[in-house]
Design a protein that fits this description.
This protein is 39% helix and 17% strand. It is an alpha/beta fold. It has a domain at 108-263: Rossmann fold. It is globular and about 90 Å long. Belongs to the AB hydrolase superfamily. AB hydrolase 4 family. GO terms for molecular function: monoacylglycerol lipase activity; short-chain carboxylesterase activity. This is Serine aminopeptidase S33 domain-containing protein.
């Protein structure tokens, strides 16, 4: 007796509806996860795009603290239009961290050539003085001959920030700009930076001004006819301002500018441990310093 076999029937419509329902739920979960990640990233990178959008990217006026009757204000600050305007943030770089990454990784920096002079401190420390010889940006080049002892052209001494040296992008932009105005420019690299080994038990810090003082004295002795100026950035600005305060009227500089100086280092220390992204920076600084010298312990 033969048994009639029939293949089981499937309700394909029901199967399709259930599958689509499952995919729809999964899709919603993925969208929620993506939204949560974007919110996390927005806060992690401290993006201010929405706040800027609400103000139509009009920016904020530059706030100045100054004495309007001072000679410095009348001769310098009052003539700097940029200081009396507004700060307009770049819409697609509405984050301090994106700005930092863009300058270091994406933005084009001048191709510069330095002539290195070594300066040896009395304690055995080694400081690399990199004199700008030539630079070239998009075909527009400028060339500085070797500075002569009787050269009266102004000399700009650049003091870089933490872990920065003459090869840093913002330093290249600064030295290139000043050289195009006819200045002689030298970058005073901190101990252990610029590819120079640490040759003493003393390292650089925001409170150590002796290296800068000796470098300025050295350059002044070499080029007594040239007026000396200095620009410090970040921790270099802190060192510069501290030096100016310590030497006062005995300072050999004709002028100086401090850019983004961390005036209160205690607040800076607290800030760098404030949030996860700042703690990440702290770890990166530690790695970079340990790469410079394995003998340094942090």
């Amino acid at each position: 007796m033969e048994e009639d076999y029939r293949a089981p029937s499937y309700d394909y419509d029901e199967f399709f509806v259930k599958s689509m329902s499952f995919l729809s739920i999964s899709h919603n979960y993925l969208l929620l996860l993506l939204l949560a990640f974007l919110v996390f990233l927005y806060n992690f990178l401290e993006v201010h795009f929405l706040a800027d959008l609400l103000t139509a990217f009009r920016g904020n006026p530059v706030l100045l603290t100054y004495n309007s009757s001072s000679q410095l204000y009348q001769s310098v600050v009052s003539k700097c239009r940029i200081l009396h305007g507004r700060f307009f943030p770049t819409p697609w770089l509405s984050s301090p961290h994106l700005q930092t990454a863009f300058l270091s990784l994406v933005a084009e920096s001048p191709h510069v050539t330095y002539e290195r002079h070594m300066f040896y401190a009395s304690d055995g420390g080694t400081i690399a003085l990199d004199w700008l010889m030539s630079s070239d940006v998009k075909g527009a080049s400028c060339t500085n001959d070797a500075t002569r002892e009787n050269d009266k052209a102004p000399i700009l001494i650049v003091i870089p920030g933490l872990t920065s040296d003459s090869g840093s992008a913002y330093v290249k932009h600064l030295v290139d700009k000043m050289a195009k105005h006819g200045w002689n420019v030298v970058v005073s690299n901190h101990r252990g930076l610029g590819g120079i080994s640490i040759t003493s038990d003393c390292f650089y810090s925001a409170g150590w001004t002796e290296d800068l003082r000796k470098v300025i004295d050295h350059i002044h002795c070499q080029y007594p006819e040239a007026p000396l100026y200095a620009v410090g950035t970040s921790i270099g600005a802190n060192i510069l301002v501290k030096y100016l305060g310590e030497d006062g009227v005995n300072c050999l500089l004709a002028g100086a500018a401090a850019v983004c100086s961390p005036w209160d280092l205690l607040i800076c220390d607290r800030f760098i441990n404030r949030r996860l992204v700042q703690k990440l920076y702290d770890k990166c600084y530690k790695v970079m310093h340990n790469c410079m010298s394995p003998s340094l312990l942090f």
